[in-house]
Design goal:
Order of helices and strands: EHEHEHEHEHEEHEHHEEHEE
Distance between the termini: 59 Å
GO molecular function: protein serine/threonine kinase activity
CATH architecture of the largest domain: 3-Layer(aba) Sandwich
Shape: elongated
InterPro entries: Anti-sigma-factor_SerPK (IPR050267), HATPase_C_sf (IPR036890), HATPase_dom (IPR003594), MEDS_domain (IPR025847), RsbA-like_anti_sig (IPR047718)
Helix content: 25-40%
Largest sheet: 7 strands, mixed
Pfam family, one: MEDS
CATH class of the largest domain: Alpha Beta
Strand content: 15-25%
Keywords: Kinase, Serine/threonine-protein kinase, Transferase
CATH topology of the largest domain: Rossmann fold
CATH superfamily of the largest domain: P-loop containing nucleotide triphosphate hydrolases
Protein name: Anti-sigma regulatory factor, serine/threonine protein kinase
Length: 312
Amino acid sequence: MTSMRPTGEWDGTTFAHEAFLFATDQEVLDRIVPFTVEGLSRGEPVLVVAGKRVRRLLAAELGQDVRRLATFAAAETWWRGGHGTLHAYDRDLRTLRSAAPTWRLVAEPVWLAREDGREWSRFEAVANRCYAAMPYYSLCLHDRRRLPTSVLDAVVRTHPLTWSGHAPVEAAAYEDPTRFLRSVQPEWDARPGHSAVWTVTAPQEARRALAAAVIDGWRERADDVVLATHELLTNALRVAPFVEVAFWTDHETLVVEVADTGPGLPDETRGYVPPAADLAGGRGMWLAWSLADDAAVASSPTGTAIRLYFRR
């Protein structure tokens, strides 16, 4: 008879990221309860951020032990958009890092069931890279009964671990974060013929041109468009003597493209990673991504082009 190993070979020194897909209440209990009890027995902080049904099941099963959890919170209140949610999550992780040598998290991103919450899969992918050295185990719960097939497909591609029934194992469908991001970003079609195009050598040039080009119907997004583009231009002009900026509208979407002839991005995930609090630079892509509604990257050793998408 094989004994259960809730965290497998995890030694508490690095990030472990598991997708647990369930279809019954009993499956939830069979996975979460041993995981939680093991953590409590080892003196590790155990955090639970889950939907109402999962919290009710766990509270009934743990009884008084639920008071020993470091956090027992409603996931329904956590969604602030992809960048806002990750920024708050990142702050909490760094606070934990300063207070505990290791911890474990049970998380149910209930917002994945909503159209506006599905971008979270991108941040799940990036977490594998930006939190690789964080000493915690993240057990992510995903309800097969509520989530569409497309979301479940993204789940298994963004988590390096899955559950075998008695221990976590490597997930066969897991993809490198950059590859996953490229597969879910907007299609990179040729610029339309009506695009406005400028070659600039200083961000101020593009700021003025863009501010003038944002036509009626888009005025409410003008500040976002100009500031996000300025951040990308500032980055691009550090690696190239000039930058090409293109601007066009496509039905309900305004698109800005910033293209340079530099050496390519060292890491295409940077727009999804919160910059460290003490980092003097490196905030440009994060800020630009957070101001836009979507983004796409085409990068190679001969240059980088980034498109930002703004909706009305």
